[in-house]
Amino acid sequence: MQAIQNMKQADKTGKKKKGGPTPFRKAVGKVHLWLGLASGLIVCFLGITGCMLAFEREIENATQSFRFVKEQPKQQLPPSRLEAIARGQLPGKKLHSLAYEPGHSVIASFYNGDPEYYYLVFIDPYTGKVLHTRDMDSDFFRVVISGHFYLWLPPKIGQPIVASATLIFVVLLVTGIILWWPRNKAARKQRFTVKLNAKWRRKNYDLHNVLGFYMSWIIIFIAFTGLVWGFEWFAKTVFWTTSGGKALTEFNAPLSDTTAMAQRGDQPAADVLWQRMRQENPGYRGVMEVHIPEERSAALEIALNPDGGTYWKADYRFFDQYTLKEMPVRHTYGKLSQTTMAEKIQRMNYDIHVGAVAGIAGKILAFFASLICASMPVTGFLIWWGRKNKSKKEKATAAKPASRKAAVA
Asked: CA of 44: how far to CAs of 56, 369, 379, in Å?
């Protein structure tokens, strides 16, 4: 009896019971609980949409036959011919670029910021036949991306909400690992496996903790790359850290010399430079994207991406559209061989986010990591709800003997 009274007295004075959680773990648990409840719906939504986006390219290739053409031994049509065909489909719209890739239709991209529109025209590069015209505002994956980045709200409103929920989720990952971390050898054996033969509450607990722990090392990269887009201060911090203290600078494209307009020959600049790139890279099997200058002073850009499945390996080359001279650019978006490690990491941000940086294996990991992200708020809520109901039942059970004693007295 004396021992029980001593334990009760210890509880009243705030000291922990033997074997119970420390005050630090209790505080971490409270933070984990309330942040999880506050951000759970958004995190679940981001996880589901992330699953959808992991295999975007593969799904499009499997369902959109107009993206492919049979390769032929004859010469492909030059950019000027395809430009005229594309503009005929969307008169009055701004043509942004023409993307060539062996075995694929040429993609003519039309984009404008204000008023915003985005169209793609798919053209057979051998015959000039228009295979498909697509309004990307109604494209399934474009709609999913808008929800994933902005919750279908105006970017100035949606982006901070998504970024804040992502930041909270990073805190949840850290606090979750602290709570999961086994305190002794006996606990360590139970923390790495899911008990499939246990009751559903135990299975739910294991799914939340065990799977969350295993995938947290993948999820953290997805979350960090999301924060790079969401917060400018975070992007600058990452660049400053990886570059050894250098500041992240804005990209300013070089300008063409408008005083040399008379020097341009009869052949369109885009055709000459496109042919030059083909001669410099014989047997090239990657994506060659020709960016059409929208203004007289703009440079003509050609992006060479040897791997159509990712974006970070591309070389961005700029030319004066009148003299056709190459204008060196020393920046993140210049030649890959001239970029620093920090600039390469900046380039990789999207490819890391969707797992493409590690090929199909990386996409599979990103898919399952996103799936577990979506499940964690659900399993976490069920844990909290179960404990809450259990606590109510225990209080009700403890109150019954006391009420009986009072009735007898």
From this structure: 19, 12, 11
In this predicted model, what pLDDT tens digit does every residue of 150-197 receive, in sequence order? 999 999 999 999 999 999 998 888 888 877 777 766 666 666 677 767
pLDDT of residue 191: 66
- For 166, the token pair is 């992502």
pLDDT at 175: 84
CA 8 to chain centre: 51
> CA 248 from chain center: how many Å?
20
| Residue that the structure tokens 């492909």 belong to | 76
Rounded to an integer, the average pLDDT of 257-276 is: 86
The model carries a pTM of 0.82
Total residues belonging to the chain:
409
Neighbour-count burial for 34-53, b at 16+ CB within 10 Å, e otherwise: ebbeebbebbbbbbbbbbbb
Report the distance separating Cα 173 and Cα 148, nearest Å. 20
Q: Write the DSSP symbol of residue 355.
A: T
Find how far residue 301's CA is from the centre of its chain: 26
In this structure, the strands spanning 116-123 and 315-319 are unpaired
Rounded to whole angstroms, the Cα distance separating 134 from 119 reads 6
Closest Cα partner for 296 from 274, 321, 273? 321
Neighbouring-strand partners of residue 114: none
The C-alpha atoms of residue 25 and residue 178 are separated, in whole angstroms, by 8
